Amino acid sequence: MAERIGGKRGWLARVGGRLNDLSLRKKLRYLYYFCVLGPILLTDAVILLSLVRAERSEQGRQMADVASAVQYNVTNFTETPAVIARTIYLDSSIREFLETDFESPAEYYKGYRRITNQSVLSGITQIDNSVVTVYADNEGIVNGGGFIRVSDVREEEWFKKYAGSPLDTQLIIYYDRDAKARVISLLRNLGWFAGDGKTKMFVKIDLNYSSLVSDTINMKYDFPVYICAGYTTIISGEGPNNQGDRFTTFTRAREVGLEEEFDLYGETLTVRVLRRTNSVLAFLRDNALIVTLLLLFNIISPQFVMNLVEYSINSRLFRLGDVFNKVDSEELITIPGDNGRDEIGGLMDNYNRMAVRMNGLIDQVYRNRLREQEMDIARQNAELLALQSQINPHFLFNALESIRMHSILKSEHETADMVEKLAIMERQNVDWSTDTNTVRRELEFVEAYLGLQKYRFGERLNYRIELEPGCEDILVPKLTVTTFVENACVHGIESKTSPGWIFVRVNTEGEDLCVEVEDTGGGMDEEETRALEERMRSASIDMLRGKGRVGVVNACLRIRMMTDGAAKFELESEKGIGTVFTVRIPMSKTERSV
Hints:
The chain is of the alpha+beta class and about 600 residues long. About 55% of the residues lie in helices and about 20% in strands.
């Protein structure tokens, strides 16, 4: 017994420990979901499921009635042509006429006049726009007037289908390519003896397709109805049913609610009744009062009360949690407002009294000591900055100047000139008291760099620098133009064995300062050009951590930062021809040196 009780307590302790890790809001939500909302939803679901099942049962009964009505309508529509075919079958005078060997068209015409006036054909040649045609294996017949020789239709698809059927009476549905029309025909053998062969003489009655379509649509069924032969749609209750169009394939099998087949004179027809797509919405609309009451009393009302209780508890706990999160500040913050009279309100009032007391102690003991420490740290930082400012790399420039003077004394003027340009470049690199340069100063540095590269490339490198008057004092990020020029040298001129040029142009175009660096070097293909242009336009700190042309990315990023992203970068290049870098900076985003 003790082990059982201990095991039960251990299980409760584990569950309780996990619940302790959940926020109060989640606990309230779980309590509401599992003990209130869950049972309510389950009850409502059972009620709604019962109503939906009743609705589906009623809908199934209605669809069955529709299918029966369609089947009756189609069967009844073919009844009159069947009676006509039977009447012609029983008229012996027509058989005698069809079996007569006519010696001339005149003799045939005389017999034709007699048979059309004396036989049943005189009153039923055309009934309800259904076309009646008699076919006979008699070469003496002159085609026309409702009589046609069998030999003239042996290659027709409908004839082959009828000839291959064991039935004497056959319903055939086909598309007449010559007439370009949908045709529904009822064929009946006119032979009285088995030895005659059913294809020697038969009657073909073409039903009025338009009338059948009109009868089907005018019934105005509550459900979409399709009459099909297999999966070929004969009549669509939703249209269109143009007689001149070919029959279409039925493709809405997933929407079929009821499907019934029936045989009509050897042709198996299928009535497919589709479900109403808005049946659920219609059901909800018809039972709107019940659904509204269920939602109001079983879901909305409990949810509203739950939200009020949750807000009452959580809002005050959040306020209490906020002040506890700020305990690292210089003083404890009190909780303003009405805190209520329940347990949480009492806890908040006690905290306020504690905060007032603690703030007094902090002012008396801790705050004065903290201020003294801050002053000591500030003084130490100032001293350190003062020491750092005294460190200046003048020794490097003095050493370069000594080398230059030594080269002049030895008449090594070319070496002296190179050292002088290197000194200019190093002084520019070292002096980062500001991140900007005037355009004039930047181009002087470019001149020094290109002059130094001229010693390396010799006649392979030629350059020209053009500066529009009025642009000299405009400030640009330091070493940005130089970076584009360096890129032109390294990736343009260096990769080409023949002489090349580098052009640097700075001028104004409209409201923009335009900086253009052009080289006649190796160039890039379209893919490389677009990739580099994209890197220039989307330059970021993360790109500088990667590999590749980070110098160009660095320059573009600094230009973007100086202009608040208003600068535009353009890159044009052609393999074997050269490359043009263009930077357009709005004049509204630039400053001038004072």
